[in-house]
Backbone:
């Protein structure tokens, strides 16, 4: 990947969900100066998935992502290409980058933060950068790869007529089997792959209805009362047949904790475990190849979520209960209902690099920019974290 920075300021490009060595991760430690370039290379070594990339400059990520810098990475693999699921790009398989914007009366993009403290909540949705979007398609089944590329808003996606669809993938790849549902909630950074059946000539609206953010009356201020039309699907009068979805999709291994620590992450007040992000502080070192348990809790009454770089994890429990279908499979971002404990099983990469950290943070990007972020390194046995530089960009 060759990244050229055409912005008038420093940025960086992070591959969200990709298993890359930390020096290729594109976090705040890999700045790309204005007019400069950066090239990243790695071997793709993970299952078929819908991933994405976006700028990640220290303290200024919200601005860049809100202005539309977000793109999708589609990975397939030997198994996925053989499955009888829609996978013809632009024919029956479409990535949808969903972002909300707010425009001033004279049509300029407004970056005014909304009252609830989540960041910028827009009242206008753009999909793949398009206003009032519709999608014409020609097949009986359509696969939509939904990315919540918004900086603050959580969506609860479904169809205007409440029809069922099949959830076939989450952040890190395909799930074990299609799960029938009529709603899928995605907080900023999360993805879902869904397959929906349509009839010839019909029009159906993909719509977000009020998500249950878990914070009671406060949710209204975080977009919890909003209904937004996302996209209109327009079926042509004749639709090419598609086979029914298979009963099973892929084997998703269930990782077990092994050789690693159990850690707690308490999110509150724009801090994690009482600390704000410091570029020169490593918050912990994890053993390469180990599988850890991370217990994550949002102690505020308002929305947060949790994302980690460089890994995919599985949600083992939600307040000690098994996770719902939409939290199954490999994840890298998870919504945190206030005061609920999410237990994650986190296999760490095999490569050690004590000097270059991975980030973990709230993916409500204003919060991340305000310091709700930390750093970890992956080390070999007996190795301690190195020293990471504090870089000033101006
Ligand atoms: Cu998409 Cu550090 O995030
Ligand atoms: Cu990321
Ligand atoms: Cu947050």
Residues:
């Amino acid at each position: 990947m060759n990244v050229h920075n055409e912005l008038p300021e420093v940025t960086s490009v992070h591959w969200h969900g990709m298993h890359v060595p930390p020096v290729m991760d594109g976090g705040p430690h890999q700045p790309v100066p204005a007019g400069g370039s950066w090239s990243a290379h790695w071997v793709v070594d993970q299952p078929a998935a819908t991933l994405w990339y976006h700028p990640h400059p220290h303290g200024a990520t919200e601005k860049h992502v809100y202005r539309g810098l977000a793109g999708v990475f589609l990975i397939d693999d030997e198994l996925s290409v053989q499955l009888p699921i829609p996978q013809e790009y632009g024919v029956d398989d479409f990535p949808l980058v969903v972002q909300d914007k707010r425009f001033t009366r004279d049509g300029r993009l407004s970056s005014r933060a909304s009252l609830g403290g989540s960041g910028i909540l827009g009242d206008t949705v753009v999909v793949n950068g398009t206003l009032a979007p519709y999608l014409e398609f020609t097949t009986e089944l359509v696969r939509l790869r939904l990315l919540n590329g918004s900086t603050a808003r959580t969506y609860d996606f479904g169809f205007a007529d409440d029809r069922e669809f099949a959830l076939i993938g989450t952040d890190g790849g395909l799930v074990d089997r299609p799960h029938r549902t009529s709603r899928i909630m995605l907080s900023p950074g999360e993805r879902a792959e869904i397959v929906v059946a349509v009839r010839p000539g019909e029009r159906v609206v993909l719509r977000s209805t009020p998500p249950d953010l878990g914070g009671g009356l406060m949710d209204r201020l975080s977009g919890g009362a909003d209904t937004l039309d996302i996209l209109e699907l327009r079926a042509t009068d004749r639709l090419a047949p598609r086979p029914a979805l298979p009963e099973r999709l892929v084997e998703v291994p269930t990782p077990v904790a092994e050789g690693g620590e159990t850690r707690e992450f308490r999110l509150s007040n724009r801090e994690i475990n009482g600390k704000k992000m410091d570029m020169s502080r490593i918050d912990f070192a994890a053993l390469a190849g180990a599988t850890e348990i991370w217990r994550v809790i949002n102690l505020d009454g308002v929305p947060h979520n949790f994302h980690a770089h460089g890994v995919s994890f599985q949600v083992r429990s939600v307040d000690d209960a098994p996770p719902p279908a939409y939290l199954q499979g490999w994840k890298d971002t998870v919504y945190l209902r206030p005061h609920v404990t999410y237990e994650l099983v986190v296999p760490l990469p095999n490569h050690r690099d004590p000097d270059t950290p991975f980030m973990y943070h709230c993916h409500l990007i204003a919060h991340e920019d305000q310091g709700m972020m930390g750093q970890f390194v992956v080390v070999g046995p007996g190795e301690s974290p190195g020293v990471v530089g504090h870089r000033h960009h101006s």
About this structure: Residues 216 and 355 are 43 Å apart (CA to CA). Helices lie at 61-66, 365-369.
